[in-house]
Amino acid sequence: MTEQLIPTRRAFPADDPIFALNAEAQGRKAQGESILNATVGALLDDSGQLVVLESVMDLWRELGALDVAPYAPIAGDPAFLKALVQRHWPSLGSAGSACATPGGSGAISLSMRNFLEVGQQVLTTAPFWGPYATMAAENGLGLVTVPWPEVDQPLDAAAWAQALHTLLKTQGRVLLLLNDPCHNPSGRSLSPADRQALAGVLREASALGPITLLLDFAYLDYTRDPAFVAAALADYAKLGAEGCVLVGASMSLSKSMTLYGARCGAIAFPWCADPALQAALTQSCRGTWSNCARAPQALLLRLAQDGKAQARLAAEHRHWSDRLASRATALDAALEAEGMAPLHWQGGFFVTVPAEDPEAVGARLRAEGVFTVPLPEGLRVGICGMKATEAPRLAQALRRGLR
């Protein structure tokens, strides 16, 4: 009898905890329970339907056979990469070292594969997007964190400096994943003073070894204040142009274009045209997914050449940003009505309610039909998937759950 073959890699749970929670919520709803499901990670309208941006879908319908069927270049269409970088930094004339990836997650995983060695550690913030840890483990890496600033509190520059110095001493290099602006899952961004302090810490630490700063731009199109986001991008561009830190970006079409299923994005280092870096990124593409879908790349190029489509997309982003802001404002008001602190959302799809025992609190909420995602720092609430009118129920359940 042939011995059963089993994977030699470490085993993970069959279900992602978030998917398991969402499945339980959907199952109980199907049985007739009144469910408030704040685990959802995609933008829904007030009827619970997936939001699809019509300006994007009109461009999708225009794609022809040759925009869809042929292979794209392994590293992605160079024109697509340039256009995607210019959506964030319009004045740049090049994408630098860059390649197309299957969404932002592909870009993040690719950075881990290329800037660290097995056994080393990725640096990010606490709280963070859970799949960072999964991707780190898949690449044989650990993950360490530095604190995300609390509401109305400055960046703890000393803690960030200590983390950078420790990693540079133990492994000789640092990869910092920074989801800013519009941080997932806090819903808040670094202030201008925070960014200035962080830049100073990074400059100082870079004298001890190479630092790569990868900016995760998943949510920046959904913000209370577009001018604030533009200022943040300008600050990061200034740091990138200095060259003391290798600054890059993970850019995705998933949330920005509501093209979750198209699985397209890019990793780009716009201020570095090193052929060795480009070769490494291209080789990693070939060795993992080979190349990415052509259709979303063709769509972005059509968008870049169509001023009316850009204006329509900007209007849709503004509409849904305002809807998210109204949900966040309603939740803050409901929390304050229950004697709890507001969360001060600035952008993105989520907020995080602090809790000392998130698992226990989450279980109490689920008993009431209210579903959130427990994190080490608290409970993640997907305002992207809830209605403003549900805020009082959530706040009341939280007050009881946090007893």
Strand content: 5-15%
Elements, N to C (H/E)? HEHHHEHEHEHEHEHEEHHHEHEEEH
**CATH homologous superfamily placement of the largest domain:** Type I PLP-dependent aspartate aminotransferase-like (Major domain)
- CATH fold-level name of the largest domain: Aspartate Aminotransferase, domain 2
Mean pLDDT comes to 95
What is the topology?
Blueprint: H1 17-30, E1 36-37, H2 54-62, H3 65-68, H4 78-88, E2 97-101, H5 103-115, E3 121-126, H6 131-138, E4 142-147, H7 157-171, E5 174-178, H8 192-205, E6 211-216, H9 226-242, E7 246-252, E8 265-269, H10 275-288, H11 294-304, H12 307-337, E9 350-354, H13 358-367, E10 370-371, E11 373-375, E12 378-382, H14 391-401
What does this structure look like?
The protein is of the alpha/beta class and 403 residues long. It has 2 domains: 17-42 and 310-401, Aspartate Aminotransferase, domain 1, CATH 3.90.1150.10; 69-305, Aspartate Aminotransferase, domain 2 (3-Layer(aba) Sandwich). The protein has 14 helices and 12 strands. The chain has helices spanning 17-30, 54-62, 65-68, 78-88, 103-115, 131-138, 157-171, 192-205, 226-242, 275-288, 294-304, 307-337, 358-367, 391-401; strands at 36-37, 97-101, 121-126, 142-147, 174-178, 211-216, 246-252, 265-269, 350-354, 370-371, 373-375, 378-382. A 5-stranded mixed β-sheet has the order 2-8-7-6-5, sandwiched between helices. Helix 9 links the parallel strand 6 and strand 7. Helix 8 (192-205) packs parallel to helix 9 (226-242), helix 12 (307-337) crosses helix 14 and helix 13 (358-367) packs across helix 14. The longest helix is centred in the last third of the chain and has 31 residues, at 307-337. The model has no long low-confidence stretch (mean pLDDT 95).
